[in-house]
Structure formats: structure tokens, C-alpha cells
UniProtKB/TrEMBL annotation:
PANTHER family: CHOLINE MONOOXYGENASE, CHLOROPLASTIC. Residues 62-168 form the Rieske domain. Its cofactor is Fe cation. Residues 1-22 are annotated as: Disordered. PROSITE patterns: RIESKE. This is Rieske 2Fe-2S family protein. Pfam families: Rieske (PF00355), Ring_hydroxyl_A (PF00848).
Length: 434
């Protein structure tokens, strides 16, 4: 059973439009970007940059869009909207994952209109052209004898799975470095067996901000101590700090972190589970970071006391105290793999000032709701954290829309924000190059 939970409150909104009416020269703004500083306002507010981001970032790189448990059976599908693109993800009859452009080869109608569901074949509601799950055209009425169905299948989108995560690339020439990344990340994901889980809950939250603000906010914990009381019950607030920069008030938390890390490293070593960080956040197309890290409190899961949210542990784990395997990919996704559940996050741009943040919780496929887990407890920490982050992003969108906005410098513990923005600028420079 999948529990879909609405957000408890809406993110901050503004009473004025936040897109600019003045012409914007993206190439000039990219060229004058000041390293170590936030981007200028038009990067977050202009239609020119939004369209450029779709073309240069979301249509050219590997984008996380869903998990295999979201389409568990043949015929199960979801549709994904990325700017002007609509993509169907569907489980085919052989159990594989297919990604197809949601555009009928007759006159261009959307084939599937629902966000998710299950079908036998893909039937366009306009003129009933019918396609198989792999995109082959099966039926097109009233065509001449010379009509060749083999020439009019749905156009395919590149798709890859990695430890149960589904990535797509809209480009006909996807970045080839995904193979290298997958080879190194797969051993971290494998013990959790995500493909053997089920979706326990999913929440869609539309944040009133540009997708880059959503991701920048996610890539630092400078704001966590004051901004996320539920999260910091288990998430050490020293994240991102170098040892010499940890404020005195956080030293007790750092001492707990060191003890918890020592315990986690012993547990991982005994079980042959990798835990060391791999961090390649810029200088490559498929940029990423992965590391298994300790949790505070009981050290088991993202709950207010740190204890497991599901009695039924994933795979064949023999202990819930295995910390959190944290993974993120540029440009739009982050993940937490725990012993008792997995949480996935994807940020999909809707408009210059609106971003869909989809959070999905996975538990063991044999876990029973109300017996092994309570959906409210399972989702509590990240529902609250997402809503808080939505408010921060909304306030920032309003601020960067002001003529008074001037980019400020990043703090040292915001180095991952700087890396994200630097990666983004690298990709725009490649796209804009003659």
C-alpha cells in the first residue's frame, strides 16, 4: 500500500512576479560569474536562464527521475515533466525499464495524460494509435497499404538503472562517464537492495523558487542548527565544517559524531560495506558524492529519537545501526539509504520560480503498514524538513528578485554549494561555446 501524504503547510509565496521583464544576456552573465560568490539575480528569475537550464542541463545530463519500486509490475508507468519534455517510464513485459517520449508519432498528442498508472498497451486517446511498452507501433487505423508501422514507434529516451535508481538522459549522446560513476557507487547501494523494496509514501511539494536555489539550499547545513530542529535530532549539525572551523557550541556534537563514526566504521568493516567518501562535484559531466556517515541519537534512522522507523529491516541487515548512506548527483537529486528504509529526492524545474520536489520513502517489500511501520513516523522528519526548506527557498527567491540583490560570498562550510554552482557554470560554458 502506498500512502500519499500532502504537505502540512504551503511554502512561502510572493505577491509580485519574480521573473524579469528586462532582456537578459546569459552568455555575458556566465562569463562574469565571480567564483566563490552566489550567482546574480537573473540566473534565478529570468525566462532566458530557465530555458537555457532545460537545454544545457536537464536535456543533456543524466537526471534521476524515479525508482524501480515505483513501477514494480509490467505495464506500470509514471510520466515525468522536464520543461518542454514529457517522458513515459514504463515496465515492459520482460521486466525491463523503458523510457519513451510522451509524443504520439501521428500528430503529436500526448499519449499518456496521467501522472502514474498501469496499462496493457499505450493508446493515444486522440486517434487511438497504439504502442507496445517498448514503443513499437502496434496499430494505426486508416493508413494506406504502403504504411510502415516500423518507422513510427515512440521515440526512445536513454535510461539507466543504478541500484534500483532510474536515470534518464534526453540527449542523443548521453555523457559517457555514467559507467565510471555507476561502477564506483554500486557497491555502496548494493547492500540495501532498493529494487526489493516497496513505496510506503510519496510527497510532492512545489517550492516557490528556482531549481538552483532548491539544490543550493540542500547542499549546505549552515542553516540546519537553527532551521531544522527535527532533522538535527539525528543529523550532526557540524556537517560541512572543517575541524578548525567548528564553533565551540558545536564541539559536544562533534564529540558524539567522532564516537558514532568509530562505531559505524567498525560495523561497516565487519560487514564488508564501503563507507569512505568519494567526492567529485565538478570538473566532470556526471558529478556526484557518496559516503556512509553516522547518525546522532540512537544512530539507526531519521526519526526524532534516532530509532528505526520500520521493524522490518531492508535486505538481510542484522542491525539497524548502520548510519546513513548519503548520495547526491548534480544537478537534481539526493538520497539517504538506511538499514530500515530509503528516502529519495528529485527536484524538477517547473518555471523560473517554481520547482517540484518529490520525496519517496521505501521500506522492505514485506513490511506491513501499521504493524512494521507507521507512515507518520516514517515520514515525519523529512516532511518537516522539506517544508522548512521550502520556506527558506521562497524567501530567497523573493530576495534575489529584488533590484537591491547583490551576490554575497559563500562561507567555507558552503563549499558544496560553490561546487554545485561551479559545475553548473562549467556546463553552461560548454553549451554556449561556439
Amino acid at each position: 500500500m502506498t500512502t500519499v501524504l500532502p504537505p502540512a503547510s504551503q511554502p512561502v509565496t510572493t505577491d509580485h512576479p519574480v521573473t524579469t521583464d528586462q532582456p537578459v544576456d546569459p552568455a555575458a552573465l556566465v562569463a562574469r560569474r565571480r567564483p566563490g560568490y552566489a550567482l546574480e539575480g537573473p540566473f534565478y528569475t529570468s525566462r532566458e536562464f530557465f530555458d537555457l537550464d532545460i537545454d544545457a542541463i536537464f536535456a543533456k545530463h543524466w537526471i534521476f527521475v524515479a525508482t524501480e519500486p515505483e513501477i514494480p509490475e509490467p505495464g506500470d508507468f509514471i510520466t515525468v515533466e522536464l520543461g518542454r519534455y514529457s517522458v513515459i517510464l514504463i515496465r515492459d513485459d520482460d521486466g525491463g525499464v523503458q523510457a519513451l517520449h510522451n509524443v504520439c508519432r501521428h500528430r503529436g498528442s500526448r499519449v499518456l495524460l496521467d501522472a502514474k498508472g498501469s496499462v496493457g498497451n499505450l493508446v493515444c486517446s486522440y486517434h487511438q494509435w497504439t504502442y507496445a511498452a517498448d514503443g513499437r507501433l502496434l496499430h494505426a487505423g486508416d493508413q494506406p497499404p504502403t504504411f510502415d508501422k516500423g518507422c513510427f514507434g515512440l521515440k526512445k529516451v536513454a535510461a539507466r538503472t543504478l541500484g534500483g535508481l532510474i536515470f534518464i538522459c534526453l540527449s542523443p549522446a548521453p555523457p559517457p562517464d555514467f559507467d565510471d560513476v555507476a561502477e564506483r557507487v554500486a557497491p555502496y547501494l548494493a547492500p540495501h537492495r532498493l529494487a526489493e523494496t516497496k513505496v510506503a509514501a510519496q510527497v510532492d511539494l512545489v517550492e516557490e523558487g528556482n531549481w538552483k536555489l532548491v539544490m543550493e539550499n540542500n547542499r549546505e547545513c549552515y542553516h540546519c542548527e537553527a532551521g531544522h530542529p527535527e532533522l538535527t535530532c539525528t543529523f550532526f549539525p557540524t556537517y560541512g565544517y572543517a575541524l578548525e572551523e567548528i564553533p565551540p557550541r558545536l564541539m559536544p556534537a562533534h564529540a558524539r559524531y567522532l564516537a558514532a563514526e568509530a562505531h559505524l566504521e567498525r560495523a561497516c568493516t565487519e560487514r564488508g560495506m564501503p563507507f569512505a567518501p568519494i567526492e567529485e562535484l565538478q570538473g566532470r559531466s556526471t558529478a556526484f558524492r557518496v559516503q556512509r556517515e553516522a547518525l546522532d541519537g540512537a544512530g539507526e534512522s531519521y526519526t526524532r529519537d534516532g530509532r528505526a522507523a520500520s521493524r522490518k529491516l531492508l535486505a538481510d541487515f542484522d542491525t539497524p545501526r548502520l548510519g546513513r548512506l548519503s548520495l547526491h548527483f548534480q544537478p537534481n537529486s539526493w538520497f539517504h539509504f538506511l538499514a530500515d528504509h530509503v528516502v529519495t529526492f528529485t527536484a524538477l524545474p517547473l518555471a523560473p520560480d517554481r520547482t517540484l520536489v518529490r520525496t519517496t520513502w521505501h521500506v522492505h517489500r514485506d513490511a506491513v503498514e501499521g504493524v512494521d511501520y507507521d507512515p507518520d513516523i516514517l515520514t515525519d522528519v523529512w516532511r518537516m524538513t522539506n517544508e522548512q526548506d521550502g520556506a527558506f527557498v521562497g524567501r530567497t527567491q523573493a530576495g534575489v528578485s529584488s533590484p537591491a540583490f547583490e551576490p554575497g560570498p559563500y562561507s567555507t562550510n558552503e563549499y558544496q554549494v560553490d561546487a554545485l554552482v561551479s559545475w553548473y557554470i562549467e556546463r553552461l560554458e560548454e553549451h554556449l561555446a561556439p
